[in-house]
Specification:
inorganic pyrophosphatase (n-terminal core), five-stranded parallel beta sheet, 17% strand
Length: 323
């Protein structure tokens, strides 16, 4: 007797990837194989090829980066569904490839999944959008849910906590492996119940508060009309908090861009960039000027900037977001 193949889900370990997968697997329950990593681990399809003939879903990582491995999956008879909001590059046509990609800077993967599922688990889509710092889009998506302002604030907090857990140089920096965190999320149809009842949510909230205390009050390296650039030491708290802190700083000054740089162990710089919230364009193009950079219009990152390139980065930052 042949053992049925389990679905294989590749997903970004941040809030958007988690919440997109949560919506999908609440709608299509059952055992599955999870492949994920820290937020910046975007070549997920290269981690491992699924068994031939598998049903594969890939969430919230750029198609361009993973294209060759997707093609290998298709060659082995797999069926692939792809949900994402980053620039995809050229997308091949194949009868077993189903693509849901939207580059609109006001849309994230959780909202694309929400659209695909007809709003079946909208509250989780709202959490994912808040986690991706799309506050206006998250609030608009929540309009039909009849939530109080207090409940909406709790969904925003949960999105920030899930996103916070995704950041780190490697999995050792995280409070929870994203696959384990998904398994804790999955029993909860209502994200507010997860926030209220889960010990994992409490752990994240405590870590989040402690790490933000370390980050607050640090002066920027650059503070001009175009935006601000901050540099933090190469410590675990800084690696964990860099994404959510970049979002907080971006919300403080929505007319300017934000960059947050953290020293890597090898001396290079890891950088998170947010375009001005009032003009969400240019972040991905800026990051793409550097070998380990990439992203979308509203947000991007550089994994390993040589310190000798830091002055060039500052000049590129100034040029990328003209007033």
């Amino acid at each position: 007797m042949t053992t049925p193949l389990l679905p294989v889900d590749y997903f970004n370990g941040d809030a958007d990837g988690l919440c997109a997968l949560q919506q999908l697997r609440l709608t299509e329950p059952g055992p599955n194989v999870l492949v994920t990593g820290v937020k910046r681990d975007i070549h997920l399809a290269g981690h491992c090829l699924p068994p031939p003939g598998s049903r594969v879903t890939i969430l919230d990582v750029g198609f361009k980066t993973n294209r060759r491995d997707v093609e290998r999956m298709l060659e082995q008879g797999c069926t692939v569904r792809y949900f994402d909001h980053h620039k995809p590059g050229e997308i091949p046509t194949h009868p077993r490839l189903e693509v849901h990609i939207d580059e609109d800077p006001k849309v994230c993967t959780s909202l694309i999944m929400d659209r695909h599922l007809g709003g079946a688990h909208r509250a989780w889509a709202v959490v994912g959008a808040f986690g991706d710092n799309m506050r206006a889009s998250a609030t608009a998506a929540a309009a039909e849910l009849g939530l109080t302002d207090q409940a909406l604030d709790k969904l925003r907090l949960l999105g920030e906590l899930l996103n916070y857990n995704g950041y780190g140089e490697d999995l050792a920096d995280l409070h929870f492996h994203p696959a384990d965190l998904f398994r804790h999320l999955h029993p909860f149809d209502d994200p507010l119940e997860f926030l209220a009842q889960s010990p994992q949510a409490q752990t994240l909230a405590e870590g989040y508060e402690a790490d933000l205390k370390e980050a607050d009050g640090r002066a920027p390296d650059l503070d001009e009309a175009v935006g601000r650039v901050f540099r933090y030491p190469g410590e675990a708290w800084a690696r964990r908090v860099m994404g959510v802190q970049a979002n907080r700083l971006a919300n403080e000054k929505p007319d300017g861009a934000t960059a947050l740089c953290v020293d890597n162990a090898d001396g290079s710089l890891r950088i998170s960039i947010r375009a001005p919230l009032n003009r969400p364009q240019g972040a991905g193009d800026l990051c793409g000027q550097f070998p380990t950079g990439g992203g979308r219009a509203g947000a991007g990152g550089i994994n390993a900037l040589p310190p000798s390139d830091y002055p060039r980065f500052l000049e590129a930052f100034r040029a990328a977001f003209p007033q």
